[in-house]
Amino acid sequence: MTTPSTVQRIEMVLTEEISVGELTPGVRLDEARLAERFGVSRTPIREALNRLTAQGILVAGEKRGVFVAEYSREELSQIFEAMHEIEAACARIASQRLNLLSRAEIEHAQSECLAAAQSGDRAGYLRANEAFHMAIYKATGNPYMAEIATEFRRRTGPFRAKKFATAQDLIDSAESHRDLIENIFSEDSTTASNGMRSHMTASFVQTLKVN
Amino acid sequence: MTTPSTVQRIEMVLTEEISVGELTPGVRLDEARLAERFGVSRTPIREALNRLTAQGILVAGEKRGVFVAEYSREELSQIFEAMHEIEAACARIASQRLNLLSRAEIEHAQSECLAAAQSGDRAGYLRANEAFHMAIYKATGNPYMAEIATEFRRRTGPFRAKKFATAQDLIDSAESHRDLIENIFSEDSTTASNGMRSHMTASFVQTLKVN
DNA sequence: ACTTTTTGTTTTGTATACAAAATAGTGGCC
DNA sequence: GGCCACTATTTTGTATACAAAACAAAAAGT
């Protein structure tokens, strides 16, 4: 692993804090404060904020500062529609490229999800769930598909996270992975993408309830 | 139309030069030289380069400068696969949301394509063709889908442009739009996405020949 | 002649300084 | 007391300065 540069480090920390929910949508990010906090000048801070803005995690107004992106229900619906399509495409491609390794990685990620869900570890489940979907992205063998899928995942992270309120929510989510895996492992592209579509739709229904 | 800021202007100019082919893949972009050329300091240049890097149009090495992205055949194949999926998804959504306006806009863009093709105006056709696909993106009613589709279009621009060598190439391309429009206007999502898939596949076959 | 080391130059990354714009705060006015 | 204008302060955007790393070139050694 190559040592991350200063701005990559800042980028990672902020991304993490947003996905965890420490920085909530609508919050303003003050360059000067961040500079002081990270012990650097404003220059690398601005660079990191720029990159995060390009990823859609932050939004920037004209001479008006940078904010954690917040979306209306309408916008959220559009983002989820796009994510829905991309996830379905990933499932489709993955189903056609499965091999022993990718199957094992998906299964492994799923077992981590179940473990976290059963022990009621919310933060652990969030991580495991992301890893599960990442395993599917990786199974596509296509880093470009994986990249955009990951980007949407990050953008919607703060909103999706809210839907895991009770321990039962975690278990329900983990169990719904079971069908999805079966559909993808069928190696039939239509079955796989439809499986993902219904998984994503269910996820969005839950998400809309809490946003 | 809001007046573009300095860095937006730089971004637009560079994007244009890359898509036109004035700046070819692999070329290094010198910050100092660009600063001098645009009559600004290195700071806004760096910001623009950063944004373009985030969009995948440029690639940046560690302390090694910024280059116009160049892709191997393998990478090109992966990018086109992703683009293929996204375009198909756009066609799918657009077919479900068509209205009088979006139909008209798509037809209008197509007539511009035909006009440019018939008069052998290569540069004009490139623009018109982009506008045609943009009209489909717009017809999705989903700015997020449109955004990623546009991004892929920009990334692949320099490679796709090469395939239009003769006047006949333009005419062939414009005529192949005809079927695509019919498929999308059928308002059947499967027909629409399959139509786009075959259009994109044909496009990629031609692209691979010249890359 | 070829490799390797050393030196000099270019170029990136970061810090600091400054100008212009936006926001907040104060005082005057109705 | 509430509203508007004006000033002060903060904050963004850009320019400049400097340190460190990469690159190129020349010199020394084998």
Largest interface, chains and sizes: A-B, 25 and 25 residues
Q: How would the global form of chain A be characterised?
A: globular
**CATH fold group of the largest domain in chain A:** Four Helix Bundle (Hemerythrin (Met), subunit A)
- Name the poorly predicted regions of chain A: none
Whole-number total of structural domains of chain A: 2
Name the assembly state: homodimer
Name of the CATH superfamily of the largest domain in chain A: GntR ligand-binding domain-like
Radius of gyration of chain A, rounded?
Answer: 18 Å
Give the helix proportion of chain A (percent range): over 70%
Number of distinct helices of chain A: 9
Strand order of the largest sheet of chain A: 1-3-2
Taken as a percent bin, the fraction of beta residues of chain A is under 5%
List keywords for this structure.
homodimer; 211 residues; mainly alpha; Arc Repressor Mutant, subunit A; Four Helix Bundle (Hemerythrin (Met), subunit A); three-stranded antiparallel sheet; DNA-binding
Would you kindly provide a written description of the structure presented here, covering whatever features stand out?
- The structure is a homodimer of 211-residue chains.
- By secondary structure, chain A is mostly helical.
- Chain A has two domains: 63 residues, Arc Repressor Mutant, subunit A, CATH 1.10.10; 137 residues, Four Helix Bundle (Hemerythrin (Met), subunit A) (Up-down Bundle), CATH 1.20.120.530.
- Chain A is 74% helix and 4% strand.
- Chain A has nine helices and three strands; from the N terminus they run H-E-H-H-E-E-H-H-H-H-H-H.
- The first copy, chain A, has a three-stranded antiparallel β-sheet.
- In chain A, helix 4 crosses helix 6.
- The longest helix of chain A has 25 residues.
- Chain A is globular, with a radius of gyration of 18 Å.
- The relative contact order of chain A is 0.13.
- The mean pLDDT of chain A is 94.
- Chain A binds a DNA duplex (30 and 30 nucleotides) through helix 3.
